[in-house]
Design brief:
Number of domains: 1
Number of strands: 2
Helix content: 55-70%
Oligomer: single chain
Largest sheet: 2 strands, antiparallel
Strand order of the largest sheet: 1-2
Order of helices and strands: HHHHHHHHHEEHHHHH
Mean pLDDT: 77
Number of helices: 14
Length: 323
């Protein structure tokens, strides 16, 4: 093994050791806010235009993963972000087989049910999530919201790191380790995205993308209550990412791993459940608050929101797999 290979091997071993020892100390951090946002800088930007630039489009498997309004977020991605598809074929999929539908028309055999669930999610947002997010936005300063978003993102480092390794993207894996260490130390546990300020970034990787990398077909489009849109492949990947989140087995365990202690005992299910639900609700409300103006504009400008969201999501996933 030459020197470069040894360096990467040592780096991987070191990263895994750091992940086990540090565990949840870094906290979750959300770094998907655009460069126009004050990502932990402490400067509040209150104009609707600036607020929309701060939205975290396309993270979650995701993600996180943003219940109910991930649908609008994907529509916002199409309305505000240029596609990265090649001009000669904007729906090119390097993993497509000859028997797959062309032109980006993925299978949607469950559309009658999907549309009903989609409308349910929209109404939940209209009457519950959005009013709560507006009150939250009034009380919580914008820099604090950005810091919380960064925090949730940082804690999901293991999933991104492992999926980079699984796809053979050693540079991306090394970048994820560096980002985690920088943000967890100099970024006050992940509240400040120091790595982004230094332009130390890499495309996000999740288990759904890894499955696509190895040629697993997307499968039918799927919309579930209180969850972001998926393809069947990405839903399997979403479950995988939950298993890779250290919060779920080292802090508030949903998954019991023999020999690995957790902050809350495995037998104390009630405490773990309350903590998990509280964290999830907090992340959803915080993310919705950061995207109030953008989502409003997309809903007003889009006639067929279901189709727009579906197309935006599928296009985004193709681009992510190709990266």
């Amino acid at each position: 093994m030459h020197r470069t290979g040894v360096s990467w091997f040592v780096g991987v071993v070191y990263a895994v050791a750091v992940m086990v020892m540090v565990g949840c100390a870094g906290g979750p951090s959300r770094t998907t806010l655009n460069s126009g946002a004050t990502s932990g800088s402490g400067t509040r930007t209150d104009s609707p235009k600036a607020r929309s630039e701060q939205s975290s489009v396309g993270t979650e498997p995701a993600a996180s993963p943003n219940v109910v309004l991930v649908a609008n977020k994907n529509a916002a991605a199409v309305a505000t972000e240029p596609a990265d598809e090649p001009a000669e074929d904007p729906f090119y999929d390097p993993f497509a087989k000859s028997d797959e539908l062309a032109g980006g028309e993925e299978s949607d055999p469950w559309e009658p049910v999907n549309t009903k669930v989609f409308e349910f999610n929209r109404q939940m947002d209209r009457w519950v999530l959005k009013p709560v997010a507006q009150g939250y936005d009034f009380v919580v300063p914008n820099p604090v919201q950005i810091g919380i978003s960064n925090l949730f993102y940082n804690i999901r480092f293991p999933s991104r790191f492992i999926n980079n390794l699984a796809q053979g993207k050693l540079t991306g894996a090394g970048t994820e380790v560096g980002r985690f260490l920088l943000n967890s130390t100099f970024g006050f546990g992940g509240l400040v995205d120091v790595a982004k300020e230094l332009n130390f970034t890499t495309p996000e990787e999740d288990t759904g993308q890894t499955l696509g990398y190895y040629g697993v077909k997307p499968g039918p489009y799927l919309v579930l209550p209180f969850l972001p849109p998926f393809t069947l492949r990405d839903f399997v990947g979403y479950i995988g990412d939950i298993a890779l989140n250290p919060i779920n087995w080292m802090v508030f365990p949903l998954i019991e791993v023999n020999g690995i202690p957790s902050l809350v005992a495995h037998t104390n299910r009630t405490t773990s459940s309350i903590a998990q639900i509280s964290m999830r609700v907090g992340e959803i409300v915080n993310d919705r608050s950061l995207n109030l103006e953008k989502f409003q504009g997309v809903e007003e400008a889009t006639l067929d929101l279901y189709t727009a969201v579906k197309n935006a999501y599928l296009q985004k996933r193709r681009n992510q797999i190709r990266e």
